[in-house]
């Protein structure tokens, strides 16, 4: 029995700092290694037939880290989204972002905007980057959008159900089928709280910079042999 390929995979890319510290390197070197790993592993995941890939790149809480680490990560986003625009276009991957704008800088918001526009017609898969993202904030923001629509007489409240509510999230993506967290932490850390309602969870000790094709195959293998019910009897 096999469950086939999950349509939507989400990854909490954790452990960059520990990966670096264990080798006597600076934490920021771990973030760079994580970025390089992401490009390779993401292409592999999409080549397997996964249509939606969501990655946790920076949480709202991550702004509490040192000024040095936060500014390194912000610069990395700017450089990466500038230099990888063609990478995404060439591989036919549509890039979208989830998270709040504030307090991201205009420079970061502009490169995000540019890459979203350049890839909006790409068809092979959707890459959802969660930057300045928090799951509770996403639900609060969704509730506010809904209230705004109601105030403007744009919705019939009786038609709002759990399916319809997805349209109010940062992006209207299908529910997550498989959620992976690297580096041994066994918690959700406020990631995609609405969309993981029935996701299969997979935790690995491997830190994100080492999460390669073989590591993804292990997660997939585990997923494919689960007894997935989504509430029905199996
Ligand atoms: C995940 O790695 C990347 C970000 C949060 C940006 P960490 O930086 O959390 O690495 P650890 O957990 O400290 O090892
Ligand atoms: C979650 O990792 C956020 C990202 C991977 C971007 P953290 O390292 O920030 O989460 P906690 O603090 O261990 O819960
Ligand atoms: Mg961490």
Q: Which ligands occur here?
A: 3-methylbut-3-enyl trihydrogen diphosphate, magnesium ion
Question: What's the gyration radius in Å?
Answer: 18 Å
Number of helices: 8
* Distance from first to last alpha carbon: 12 Å
Helix content: 40-55%
Annotated CATH topology:
Undecaprenyl pyrophosphate synthetase
Describe this structure in words.
The protein is α/β, with parallel strands linked by helices and 234 residues long. The protein has one domain (8-134, 177-225): Decaprenyl diphosphate synthase-like (Undecaprenyl pyrophosphate synthetase), CATH 3.40.1180.10. Helix content is 41%, strand content 15%. α5 (106-118) links the parallel β3 and β4 (125-133). α2 packs parallel to α3 (67-83) and α3 runs parallel beside α5 (106-118). It is globular, with a radius of gyration of 18 Å. The model has no long low-confidence stretch (mean pLDDT 97). Bound molecules: 3-methylbut-3-enyl trihydrogen diphosphate (IPE) (2 copies) and magnesium ion. Residues 12-14, 56-59, 62, 185, 187, 189 line the site of one 3-methylbut-3-enyl trihydrogen diphosphate.
For this entry, give a set of tags.
Undecaprenyl pyrophosphate synthetase, 234 residues, 8 helices, binds magnesium ion
Give me a quick take on this structure:
Helices cover 41% and strands 15% of the residues. The protein has helices spanning 16-21, 27-47, 67-83, 85-90, 106-118, 135-151, 162-165, 213-224; strands spanning 8-12, 52-59, 93-98, 125-133, 178-181, 200-203. Helix 2 runs parallel beside helix 3 (67-83).
């Amino acid at each position: 029995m096999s469950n086939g390929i999950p349509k939507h995979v989400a990854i909490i890319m954790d452990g960059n700092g520990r990966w670096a510290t264990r080798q006597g390197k600076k934490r920021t070197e771990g973030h760079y290694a994580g970025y390089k790993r992401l490009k390779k592993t993401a292409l592999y995941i999409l080549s397997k037939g996964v249509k939606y890939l969501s990655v946790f790149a920076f949480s709202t809480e991550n702004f509490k880290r040192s000024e040095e680490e936060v500014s390194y990560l912000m610069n990395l986003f700017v450089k990466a989204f500038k230099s990888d625009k063609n990478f995404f276009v060439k591989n036919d991957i549509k890039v979208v972002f989830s998270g709040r704008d504030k307090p991201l800088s205009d420079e970061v918001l502009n490169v995000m905007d540019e890459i979203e526009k350049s890839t909006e017609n790409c068809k092979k898969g959707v890459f959802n980057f969660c930057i300045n993202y928090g799951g509770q904030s996403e639900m609060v923001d969704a509730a506010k959008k809904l209230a705004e629509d109601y105030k403007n007489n744009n919705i019939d409240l009786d038609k709002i159900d759990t399916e319809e509510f997805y349209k109010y999230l940062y992006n209207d993506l299908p529910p997550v089928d498989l959620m992976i967290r690297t580096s041994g932490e066994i918690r959700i850390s406020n990631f995609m709280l609405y969309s993981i309602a029935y996701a299969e969870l997979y935790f690995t000790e491997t830190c994100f910079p080492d999460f390669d094709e073989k590591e993804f195959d292990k997660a997939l293998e585990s997923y494919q042999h689960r007894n997935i019910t989504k509430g029905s009897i199996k």
